[in-house]
Design brief:
single chain; alpha/beta; Rossmann fold; 2 domains; 4-stranded mixed sheet; about 15% strand
């Protein structure tokens, strides 16, 4: 039977995760698995990006294999939300791994810990758990970790689809349904990805700042309790920021509006007073200066 039959059917409601075995045996080694992540995250607008990511994960023939896309863009534009929401729409267990400058190869794969009676317990990372369970692993901010970590994933990201843990002494093959993607910020605090890894992280899916209508929908979806005028001020501010090259994102907007609502509730401030105060507290003086041209 073609492997394409293993590709999940799109559904609007993520299923409850099946019973989750806490322990599996691989090559005689007992591995303790991670739990899948369950969040209330919705992707609003830019459905073309969902289609691009879904196509990358699709398997169309028994000789085909899924791709390992990288989702790139400025901080706060929703890269992780896109990856998570797409995976859950496909009805798949989803595992997030936050990469940092301090991430080690063993953190990505299997970590030994001291258990009761001074026994060594081998704990599988979210990535390895997704490999075993046939889920999706989203490696968040992958270009914050160094080359040694990427080297440990090289055989997973090509036709071999396995990893080797030197610490546990096991080789782990990925389940046919396993899917992978990484998000990458476009900023200065990141590493360059080696060419041999970049060639394995394809296609590149670019997430841009949303348009005015989509930005309002995102704010409304996350803040259904917010005043409409407050949302309007925030959307106008963000749209002008995008046009002038300022780095403010919809995530910044959500934080500003959320804090402004709290200020209005607690101190009885007007919409304008609360919005300006929240801008200063969250985006700093420059944010308040940028707001000077808003239609208040």
């Amino acid at each position: 039977m073609p492997k394409s039959s293993q590709h999940p059917t799109l559904s609007s409601v993520p299923p409850e995760p099946p019973p989750h075995p806490p322990v599996v045996m691989i090559e005689g080694v007992e591995l303790h698995l991670a739990h899948p992540d369950r969040f209330t995250l919705h992707w609003v607008g830019q459905e073309e990006l969902v289609k691009q990511l879904t196509a990358a994960w699709l398997v169309v023939d028994e000789d085909d294999q899924p791709l390992n896309p990288r989702v790139v863009g400025a901080p706060g534009v929703g890269k992780t939300t896109l990856a998570y929401a797409t995976a859950t729409r496909l009805g798949m267990e989803t595992y997030l791994f936050q990469a940092t400058m301090d991430t080690r190869p063993e953190d990505l794969l299997i970590t030994p810990v001291i258990a009761e009676n001074q026994r060594i317990k081998y704990v599988a990372s979210p990535l390895v758990t997704a490999m075993i369970r046939g889920g999706v692993c989203v490696l968040d901010e992958g270009n914050r970790m160094g080359e040694k970590c990427w080297a440990s994933l090289a055989p997973l990201l090509d036709a071999r689809r396995y990893v080797e843990s030197v610490i546990a002494g096991v080789k782990i093959k990925a389940h046919p349904a396993f899917r992978f993607c990484t998000t990458m910020n476009e900023d200065a605090s990141t590493f360059d990805i080696p060419e041999y890894i970049q060639s394995r992280l394809q296609p590149q899916i670019f997430v841009d700042f949303p348009g005015e209508g989509e930005e309002r929908r995102i704010l409304k979806d996350n803040l259904p309790f917010a005043d409409e005028a407050l949302l309007g001020y925030m959307v106008e501010f963000l749209q002008r920021a995008h046009q002038t090259g300022e780095p403010y994102s919809v995530r910044d907007g959500i934080n500003v509006v959320r804090y402004a609502v709290k200020l209005m509730k607690q101190d009885g401030l007007t919409v304008v007073e609360a919005w300006r105060m929240a801008l200063g507290m969250i985006l700093g003086r420059k944010g308040v200066e940028e707001a000077g041209g808003a239609s208040l």
